[in-house]
């Protein structure tokens, strides 16, 4: 059972969060940064699994998402200024709350998809507070295409306003994701092979919405920021990192992008870094047919890294 609570973001915005804390003698804490167009409620099964292994779980609904977005009437929109950075700061704000409530317990940050990009920015600023970083469904540097997208987003903002949902940018971003899964039965076949999970996603009012022009600008800007060499070098080189993804995940370019991220971390001197690509699995590996294998791998990695001393 999760407990719902709220806290204030850096600018006073009310951030909605959940905790799964019914754990005797906790060994570790996993803080989750969820993906785009979803919310923390979808991580209940994963959190319960970790609780059973004496691991506490926390996570917040990002701005523009879930209960946070609903309360602010801002679904699909981050913030008026520095959206990506502000959402990342919300994550750190939650970490400080966790540290106050559970001092001296190791914290692992788990970021999925968009949450993995936010987590990569987080460790560039606050990596020293963490015992480890797990990145699920992450991707490489979009490079020139990202710059073009940012320019188009800027143009759309001028045309229709920053808070308007953008079908055009949504199509540009996700339009090709189903290509390898034809004939696709839904727009979201790229998420998982599990039909039931796709139905759950489609029927969830907090999932699959079209984000705003401002959101797309912020996300592409954030991707540019996290890939700058001077920022990448700020990641603590002794931070253990575990990359996990499906080898049929279009976000990670079917494994190529994940390997690119892995090599990028190696280049800045990180030595404790591993990756695992799951054959046949798509984007949401925690909702995949082999989710039990994935969760066991995550648990094993956590236990190794909290018991090192």
Share of β-strand residues: 15-25%
Q: What is the terminal separation in angstroms?
A: 32 Å
Biggest beta sheet summary: 8 strands, mixed
- How would you write the strand order of the largest sheet? 1-2-4-3-5-6-7-8
Sketch the topology as an H/E string, one letter per element.
EEEHEHHEHEHHHHHEHEH
Number of strands: 8
Question: Which range best describes the helical content: under 10%, 10-25%, 25-40%, 40-55%, 55-70% or over 70%?
Answer: 40-55%
Characterize the structure shown.
With 309 residues, the chain is of the alpha/beta class. Helix content is 42%, strand content 16%. The protein contains 11 helices and 8 strands. It has helices at 44-52, 66-71, 83-101, 114-126, 143-160, 167-174, 195-203, 213-227, 229-232, 256-267, 291-306; strands at 3-8, 14-20, 28-33, 55-60, 107-112, 132-136, 241-246, 273-278. An 8-stranded mixed sheet has the order 1-2-4-3-5-6-7-8, with helices on both faces. The longest helix is centred in the N-terminal third of the chain and has 19 residues, at 83-101. The protein is globular, with a radius of gyration of 18 Å. The two termini are 32 Å apart.
Could you list some keywords that capture this structure?
309 residues, alpha/beta, eight-stranded mixed β-sheet, 11 helices, 8 strands, 16% strand
Describe, in short, the structure shown.
The protein has helices at 44-52, 66-71, 83-101, 114-126, 143-160, 167-174, 195-203, 213-227, 229-232, 256-267, 291-306; strands at residues 3-8, 14-20, 28-33, 55-60, 107-112, 132-136, 241-246, 273-278. The protein is an alpha/beta fold and 309 residues long.
């Amino acid at each position: 059972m999760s407990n719902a609570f709220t806290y204030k973001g850096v600018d006073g915005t009310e951030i909605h969060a959940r905790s799964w804390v019914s754990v005797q003698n906790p060994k570790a804490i996993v803080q989750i940064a969820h993906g785009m167009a979803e919310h923390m409620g979808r991580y209940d099964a994963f959190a319960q699994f970790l609780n059973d292994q004496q691991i506490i779980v926390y996570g917040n609904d990002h701005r523009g998402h879930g209960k946070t977005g609903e309360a602010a009437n801002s679904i699909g929109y981050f913030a008026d200024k520095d959206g990506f950075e502000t959402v990342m700061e919300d994550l750190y704000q939650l970490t400080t709350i966790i540290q106050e409530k559970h001092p001296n317990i190791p914290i692992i940050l788990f970021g999925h998809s968009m949450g993995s990009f936010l987590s990569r920015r987080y460790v560039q600023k606050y990596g020293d507070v963490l015992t480890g970083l797990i990145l699920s469904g992450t991707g490489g540097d979009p490079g020139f295409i990202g710059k073009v997208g940012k320019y188009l987003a800027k143009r759309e903002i001028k045309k229709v306003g920053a808070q308007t949902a953008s079908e055009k940018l949504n199509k540009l971003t996700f339009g090709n994701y189903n290509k390898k899964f034809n004939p696709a039965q839904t727009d979201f076949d790229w998420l998982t092979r599990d039909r039931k999970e796709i139905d759950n996603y489609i029927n969830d009012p907090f999932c699959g919405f079209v984000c705003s022009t401002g959101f797309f600008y912020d996300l592409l800007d954030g991707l540019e920021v996290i890939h700058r060499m001077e920022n990448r070098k700020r990641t603590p080189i002794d931070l253990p990192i575990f990359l996990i993804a499906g080898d049929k995940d279009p976000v990670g370019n079917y494994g190529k992008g994940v390997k690119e991220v892995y090599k990028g971390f190696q280049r800045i001197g990180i030595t404790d870094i591993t990756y695992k690509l799951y054959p046949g699995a798509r984007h949401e590996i925690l909702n995949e047919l082999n989710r039990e294998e994935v969760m066991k791998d995550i648990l094993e990695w956590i236990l190794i890294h909290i018991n090192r001393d």
